[in-house]
Amino acid sequence: MREVFPDAGFREPVEAAEIVEAERRLGQALPTDLRQLLLESNGVLGRTRVATVWAVDQIVEQNLRFWSDENFAQLYMPFDALMFFGDNGGGDQFAFVQKPQRPDVFVWEHESDSRRWVANDLHDYLGRSLRVGGDDWYRL
Predict the structure, then answer these.
(1) pTM of this structure
(2) N or C: which end of the chain has fewer CB within 10 A?
(3) Residues near 89 by Cβ (< 8 Å), separated by ≥ 6?
């Protein structure tokens, strides 16, 4: 990945036990591609140091917050079908649909509460978000 995306930032990988603990806390398995990526790099930073893919602890904390925050429940449609894993640095979040489980990546736009398709899978998402200019690449 470093050769294809030289501007991206990578971290030390997580241990398998950390993923098992994250899945226990979330009450569900991480998508296979996300799990594999975390075993190679605990998150990915984009060109402007935006968390294109969050570290495993942030994945857990953000999803638990989105799934249980009462203020969010009053403002937005339910988030329980989504598993968030990254953001654009400006409030929009990227997620996998978990119910029904599918490999596609969707963006949740916080101003409108819209959820729309942006990539076929994690690999496609990384290609689009790390290649195309700007942190709002998905709006092009």
Answers:
(1) 0.91
(2) C
(3) 48, 50, 51, 135
